[in-house]
Amino acid sequence: MTPDQYCQDKAAASGSSFYYSFVFLPPERRRAITALYAFCREVDDVVDECSDPGLARVKLDWWRAEIGRLFAGAPAHPVSRALEPHLSRFGIDAGRLLEIVDGMQMDLEQTRYPDFARLQTYCHRVAGVVGTLSADIFGRSRDSTRDFAEELGLAFQLTNIIRDVGEDARRGRIYLPIEDLQRFGVPAAEILQARADERRFAALMRFQAERARAHYRRAFALLAPEDRRAQRPGLVMAAIYATLLEEIERDGFRVLTHRVSLTPLRKLWLAWRTWISAQPPRLRPA
User: Fold this and answer.
1) Does the model's pTM come out above 0.70?
2) Which pLDDT belongs to residue 180?
3) Which residues lie closer than 8 Å to 182 by C-beta, 6 or more apart?
4) Burial track 130-156 (b if 16+ CB lie within 10 A, e otherwise)
5) Is pLDDT above 70 for 45?
6) What is the pLDDT of residue 176?
7) Residue 78 belongs to what domain range?
8) Contact 154, 124 (CB under 8 A)
9) How many CA atoms lie within 13 A of 199 on its CB side?
10) What is the pLDDT of residues 90-131, one digit of tens each?
11) Which of 109, 141, 158 is at the close of a domain?
12) Phi first, then psi: what are they for 229, rounded to 5°?
């Protein structure tokens, strides 16, 4: 199996919405973004699939060393070998890859976030940095397009957090800021036990959803018209994630016990429609 095929299989097996945004890209850009996505999956799986935190730290340290080998011209892992041909052309740098690993390590070090500022640091590392790397691969003519990608990555991660509240709680993690839980009167224990008061929990989640939409709006405002066509993969992901957020809200924010998802056919339809229009999706008014 070639390194590119390894990455392709890794991306396809994930079932992620990101995969649908790669479909229409030219071959070289598609190979580069697929390799980047496979790298993110590899380091994320270290944390999610390793029950021993000590072993997970060792594996993340291995990936830090592997990034060093990659930029020294001696990568060992199939994902690193797939990334290597694209480093120079697409401006993929070691610093940002290391930031992603640092973000994954945060999941080993803490299970709560006192306020949104602390959560934003986490979101920047695991999603905003990925967004800026992706924007460089897709192609851009404006520096503001990196800011667009950073904001969009944050919006995606906040959407993921909303969708996965119940799943994360079963792993002992709560990403919703403690200050927000206190503001809406939702004790952490009620989330961990999946028995939160419906009215108060729905108010808390509506607040989280509007925060996510605010970041979508900021992202779209930063995207210059001349970069919209190049950044269509990001807009595809935005269409899918914004639709997912609407579905979660329509379902009454039952995320403690239900996991809302879109069908592959609906994702493909959203991807095709957005690719053709090269326009940001319409969001629910604030």
Assistant:
1) yes
2) 98
3) none
4) bbbbbbbbbebeeeebbbbbbbbbbbb
5) yes
6) 97
7) 1-109
8) yes
9) 0
10) 999 999 999 999 999 999 999 999 999 999 999 999 999 999
11) 109
12) -65, -45
Round the CA-based radius of gyration of the chain to a whole number and report it.
19
123 and 88 in one domain? no
- Considering the domain architecture, whether residues 39 and 102 belong to the same structural domain is answered as yes
Whichever domain contains 201, its CATH number is: 1.10.600.10
Angle between helices 129-138 and 94-109 (to 10 degrees): 150
Q: How many domains does the chain have?
A: 2
Q: What is the Cα–Cα distance from 201 to 181, expressed in whole angstroms? A: 9
Neighbours of 214 (CB within 10 A): 16
Q: How far apart are CA 129 and CA 50, in angstroms?
A: 24
CA neighbor of 139 nearest in space, from 27, 229, 31, 38: 229
Helix boundaries (H) for the chain: 3-14, 17-22, 27-49, 53-71, 78-83, 94-109, 116-123, 129-138, 144-163, 165-170, 178-183, 188-192, 198-222, 232-250, 264-277
Classify residue 92 as exposed, middle or buried by CB count within 10 Å of its CB (0-12, 13-18, 19+). Answer: buried
| Cβ neighbours around 264 below 10 Å, total | 12
- If asked whether residues 78 and 124 sit together in one domain, one would say no
Q: Give 154-208 pLDDT, tens digit per residue.
A: 999 999 999 999 999 999 999 999 999 999 999 999 999 999 999 999 999 999 9
Triad 27, 31, 32: Cα angle to 5°: 120
* Cβ neighbour number for residue 249 with a 10 Å cutoff: 17
Tens-place pLDDT, residues 212-245: 999 999 999 999 999 999 999 999 999 999 999 9
User: 97 and 63, same structural domain?
Assistant: yes
